[in-house]
Amino acid sequence: MSVLPSDLTYMRTLMANVVLIGSPGSEEWVLVDAGVGTFSDNIAEEAKERFRSEKPRAIVLTHGHFDHVGSLQGLLERWNVPVYAHEKELPYLTGKADYPEADPSVGGGLLASISPLYPHKGIDISQRVQALPSDGSIPALPDWRWIHTPGHTEGHVSLFRDADRVIVAGDAFITVKQESAFAVLMQEEEIHGPPAYFTFDWQDAWNSVKKLEALKPQAAITGHGVPMFGNQLRQGLASLAQDFDRIAIPKNNSYVT
User: Fold this and answer.
1) H/E element holding 228?
2) Number of compact structural domains in the chain
3) End-to-end distance of the chain based on CA atoms, in angstroms?
4) Beta bridge partners of 31
5) In percent, how much of the chain has pLDDT > 70?
6) Distance between CA atoms of 190 and 173, rounded to whole angstroms?
7) Which of 134, 169, 133, 248 is nearest to 201 (CA)?
8) Does residue 256 sit within a domain?
9) What confidence tens digit (pLDDT) does each residue in 164-182 have?
10) What's the pTM value of the predicted model, to 2 decimals?
11) How far apart are CA 83 and CA 209, in angstroms?
12) Which of 154-175 are b and which e, b meaning 16 or more Cβ less than 10 Å from the residue's Cβ?
């Protein structure tokens, strides 16, 4: 596989991707993540062009960091749809907890150095959000299942479709060096661990990469960067899983234990 299946597309919102799952022209589709703030109109326009219904059946969140829920409130003002997330992510989506502050000492890039400016407060969408089913199924996406991939956040999930081995990985791993503004601008394509400045449990993050590598995915859309395919994806993911401590884990980090 060297291109995305026809029922999958993604949209970049400044620094983070959202994913639209559904066949073009269909009335039934699902949005994964909601990108950074001020992009709700852009996401809705993209949906209007691609589908017969602008409104999705549901929104699924890989996690609740600011760059994955930034346009969520605006979208929920337009769409009366349910939002699903892992049960361990719910405190950050119901106003009960805030994420730890970012660590600017990691990564050596501009985006890492300014990370203390990024929002880390939780949001409150308690009227809309509910836990994903415990059996791994995803409402409105019968061909997909969710996989708990903690580390970047406690309740981070990735989505996987067994039929074609496509993964929507969120930030469990990404395909750009997110700490570097230059790499993000140029969308340099290479597999990396999760954004270091907002990753708080590195052992869990490593275990999550191993879990995803074992699936031998044919294609991946990640929360940052461009899609990757085939041997390049599998070899890069295998290298990351084997040498995560050397490749991904910062030598000095507030959250390394």
Assistant:
1) strand 228-229
2) 1
3) 39
4) 20, 59
5) 91
6) 10
7) 248
8) no
9) 999 999 999 999 865 555 4
10) 0.94
11) 25
12) bbbbbbbbeeebbbbbbbbbbb
